[in-house]
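Input sequence (403 aa), recorded before submission:
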Amino acid sequence: MWAAYAVSSYGTWLGFGAFPLIAILVLHAGPTQVAALAAAGRAVGAVAAVPLGPWVEFRRKRPVMIAMDLIRFTALMSVPAAYALGLLSFTQLLVVSVTVAAANIAFNAAGGAYLKALLPPEDLLIANGRLESTTWTSTMIGPPLGGAAISMFGPMTTIAADAVSYLLSALGIRAIGGTEPHPARTEAPRRRLRAGDLLEGWRHILAHPTLRPLFFNTIIVNGLIMASEPLLAVLLLGHLGFTPWQYGLAFAVPCIGGLVGSRLARRLAPRFGQHKVILSAGALRACWSVGLAFVQPGVPGIVLIIAVQLGLVTCCGLFNPVLATYRLDHTDPGKVARTLSAWSVSSSAAIAALTALWGLLAALTSPRTAIAVAGVVLLATPLLLPRRENVPRSTGERAASLT
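Predicted structure, token format:
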């Protein structure tokens, strides 16, 4: 499972930014269309994924993961195929973007539920830390390699590589072997999903006294960070005259912090407790982004970006695996897929909405001002973190601890 995750993660980051390049260079799309491609794909994909949570919940997870990998492979491979035939259109890029976004959410929901069933609770943090470190490694290595491949062979090459990575991921998951029991329903058996099933994940999150504030904190923090990224690209590449390799370097080097943070997670959480690590890392990760508003041209600007991003990424690398483990620990097995799906859908929708809102703010003011406002708002997000943690683990784990 780790190998399958790694190959698809490297493929994703290898193809990072290929869709906007294709829209601009091949289809001659303007800024509005490129922004729509980024925001609509994530937002519509999130809406399309809403019914997938309960659908995934009551099915074996490995077949779902394989199916989502094959869907992503087929969708992405349709882009170079249509280009080769001279049939590629902006509409197709939108459809592919939506399809991949929805499949991502379903895959992650199934993957989290499968991981919880695969490992004992004491090993979940180690596994999540390794997955987190893989994410940051691929983030550091993938975009520079993808940029080189695009320069040499064009953006279709990285799209095809990304597609093939999902095919290899499906083969890896298939190679796990063994049998997976069909999930038992905790509710009364029925053939069709009810409307209430669609909301079960949100009900669990909002009724949980610790997951609820973590949920709102996470979607706001992630949304503001992601909303600032395109504005920072405009500021650095357009206004301050950074070259593409300087821009790539400024965001690749700090990914080392993700490796450091994910390695620290499995040492600090057992020693200080999950809640203290989440509270500390969650507060610290909100303190960095405001520094990006002060970036200047030249070497000092690069150094500032690397320092700010290094601090941010290190805190995120520590926060994310501990949060992922805490979320699994405090969710019953029969609700994991719906909870993770609800979390991902909300996060994607928030990122799309905040990206659009901050794009409008940048148009009315300037990219630097919008980045500064995002940084200031982030400083207030630690107020959403839970101050106390007195909630027991999920029902199934409490029962297991009593036997």
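Checked by second reader. Confidence is low (pLDDT under 50) at residues 395-403.
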